[in-house]
Design goal:
Blueprint lengths: L1 H6 L10 H27 L3 H25 L4 H7 L10 H14 L1
Length: about 110
């Protein structure tokens, strides 16, 4: 993700990869926090069954994340972005967001 943002910064609005890099770093920090949280929970367990259960739970989650990552590898992000570029007006205010929220609320 970080490599994509760095080497494709010309494809982002304002030719800046700042926000994609921030999002990638937050994703990595979240993954590390989840890993350390699981390690902490396994260390607190008192029986062998609880330790094995925690390990199996983390293994299942890791397997699901791997499957989810494989679904993204077949997407041509460059082609998608060039066909449908992300565009936004320079001057935006909260009233546009309020309109979208009201439209969404009316739908549901």
């Amino acid at each position: 993700m970080i490599q994509f943002a760095l080497y494709n910064s010309h494809k982002f609005p304002n030719r800046s990869a700042f926000w994609p890099l921030i999002l990638a770093c937050l994703k990595m920090l979240g993954a590390l926090a989840a890993e350390y949280g699981n390690i902490f929970n396994i260390l607190r367990d008192t029986t062998n069954g609880q330790v094995i259960g925690g390990y199996v739970t983390m293994s299942i989650i890791a397997k699901i994340e791997g499957i989810m990552a494989l679904t993204l590898t077949q997407v041509d992000i460059g082609g998608e972005y060039s066909a449908n570029p992300i565009m936004y007006r320079r001057k935006q205010n909260i009233f546009g967001d309020i309109y979208l929220v009201k439209k969404w609320a009316k739908h549901y």
